[in-house]
Amino acid sequence: MAYYEQSVHDFLEHTGSKAPAPGGGSVAALTASSAAALVEMVANLTIGKKGYEAVWNDMQAVADKAASLRHELLLAIDKDSQAFTALLAAFKLPKDKEEDKRKRIAAIQEATKQAALVPYEMGKQAYSLFALAEEVIQKGNTMAVTDGAIAVINVHAAIKAAFLSVRINTKSIKDKAFVASVEKEMQHLEEGAQKEEKRLLKLLADRI
Questions:
Q1: How far apart are CA 21 and CA 84, in angstroms?
Q2: What CA–CA distance (Å, rounded) separates 47 from 182?
Q3: Residue 207: pLDDT above 80?
Q4: pLDDT greater than 90 at residue 60
Q5: Which spans in 47-55 are helix H?
Q6: Would you list the domain boundaries of the chain?
Q7: Which of 170, 154, 141 shows the shortest CA–CA distance to 44?
Q8: What is the rounded average pLDDT of the residues 90-118?
Q9: pTM: predicted TM-score of the whole model, two decimal places
Q10: What is the DSSP string of 81-150?
Q11: Is 1.20.120.680 the CATH number for 22-207?
């Protein structure tokens, strides 16, 4: 059974075990997916509510986008674990002969790149939730608007966590151009995430 199909109890039991996966990257994906679910919830609690007729269509669009992201981020739970498992398998490749050593090194480098790219892409996906959270904080049902703000906090946490998982891998990657490109984008998104959290929490304070 895929990790994302497990109960919360079973997933956390597995995470807390001696098994090397799922780990931080998978938990970051779960955190981001939970944030998407909160945005989706606020939108759905606004649709059909009296007094919010003017934003029903906007909230339906938000709910649809958040649901799609929730699903994609759930899949990232397993993608991250699979990438790490593939990396472990690469380290176990034979290294008795020179040709074996070369193949093993190449396989490790490729697997390390993939182990970095999965949380990198997940962090980028999570970032797009800020715009959806803004919609529900600004226009959503005031009885649930704080859930949109909690989503913002979790998005920021997920991005920070995802990028830590990237960096533990990029330090072993020899392709310096790849590492520099990824690091530049992460720094940009991290700075943006910090600003977005502060801005959107202020927007919440102005509304409640």
A1: 7
A2: 39
A3: no
A4: yes
A5: none
A6: 22-207
A7: 141
A8: 95
A9: 0.93
A10: HHHHHHHHHHHTS--SSHHHHHHHHHHHHHHHHHHHHHHHHHHHHHHTHHHHHHHHHHHS-TTTHHHHHH
A11: yes
